[in-house]
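Hey, quick one: can you model this chain's 3D structure?
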Amino acid sequence: MQFIDLKTQQSLIKDKIDARIQNVLAHGQYVLGPEVREAETLLAARTSVAHCITTASGTDSLLIALMALGIGPGDEVITVPYTWISTAEVIALAGATPVFIDISEQSWNMDPALLEAAITSNTKAIMPVGIYGQPADMKAINAIAEKHNLPVIEDAAQCYGAHHHGQASGGLSTIGSTSFFPSKPLGCYGDGGALFTNDDDLADRMRQIRVHGQAEKHHHPILGINGRFDTIQAAILLEKIAIFDDEIQKRNEVASAYTNALKNSPLQVQAPTVLSGNTSVWAQYTILAPEPAQLQAKLSEKGIPSVSYYAVPLHLQPVFAELGYKQGDFPVTEKVASQCLSLPMNPYLSTAEIEQVTNALK
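Sure thing. Here's the predicted structure for all 362 residues.
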């Protein structure tokens, strides 16, 4: 059984992908070619925003967003310690300071009730994360941000394709960011990412930053990076966008089967909760278990792969030791990090494979 199955998906769209790649080889515009612009148009439309700017990776997307907002040394950006390191890493790379607040016990995303107390005169942005497939409580976060006149960067790398009170993830804040890393719900076959905004000026700045700060040929008014999206990856992404909605539905069917199995299981685990007003794309199906290593070993005996993500939260990572956080500072994060276990999740799990997992859990 594959934990993440990209081979089955590829077999379904291989001919279309091959044709797309041959097209790119024929026209020879390998970076920011016509397929990139086509993908940006499609992504902007499905996210209901005015602008989509593709990038070389989801990490680059977050960094470009911070740079476009002018965030740098002396500034603080509020985020969460339960996420992949890119979220806080880019804040430090921009010269700013990551400020962590704890997550909600229900969604495992940023707890809005803790947000306002963390805002200082140095706070310049808020960066919530949509962990495991569902957006954070963006409605509450945006309300606090608006009160303090702060921009919000939504890290939607794991929840792109989900909705929050009817609005598409990626289009929920000042700037939305996603990743097209292959294991993401919508991924390519290499690195890639995208930014979303309705702000024309921010969109122009982000486009400039991704090409070394270039406004036009030989004219670089601002500092930038090499953050361009490869055309071949865009060509692949186009065919994956075409099947994305169907795959989201299939992911939800797998998640429902798992949840129903856990309801009828004596196993003392906490199933994931999708908050009211949210949908999920189920980037992962993650449970909390008192002894995750023991459960992981027993599942492995039955041929079922599982993964403990973010077992060491960011506030305990050595690279952020100088921030002064310690064990016990974020109890919900530490509980989730110590108990989390993700089960196989992909749209192409067969009925037999789902039963293999659910029977093992029972």
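One thing worth noting: The radius of gyration is 20 Å.
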